[in-house]
Amino acid sequence: MYLSFKNKNQISNDGRILAVGAYDQKISLWRIEDAKLILIQQLRLQNNPKRILFSQNDQDLLICTKDGLVYCFNNSKQREYKEYQKIFNIKGKIRAIEFNNDASVLAIGGETNALQIWQKNQDDQWILVDEAKQDNFLETISFANNPDVIYASNNNELYIHHIM
Question: Gene3D superfamilies per the record (predicted)?
Fold first, then answer.
């Protein structure tokens, strides 16, 4: 199978779903069966996807667009992913986004020179709980085995953050 004009893809953690983003502002979700791909859902966006991220249990699917918007989808109550939130207040391009191991914390960084820490509230919505300013943009984010420690870096520097 040939998928043309695709620019981002991600396989779910259980290896059953392939999410493919394209310049047509869509994410196509494909079920992987043996050596076949079966289209199961298409998600529409308002801009081209920059990053696709599944949570560890694959219930949450986050899609960042190149304008800094984060689309949040969830499939915990149904068989397909439904949009439940958009994170608008990212002030610049996102270069890195990562869940901690249990998907209770979300870290976002990029060209704003800040690391944003998000957590879900009792209504299952992501809320901004902390923002740490850096000297430069952030290129990568990683969580340590200890869920309270985040490593963020750019081309020249490594930052270590502790979540309070």
Answer: YVTN repeat-like/Quinoprotein amine dehydrogenase
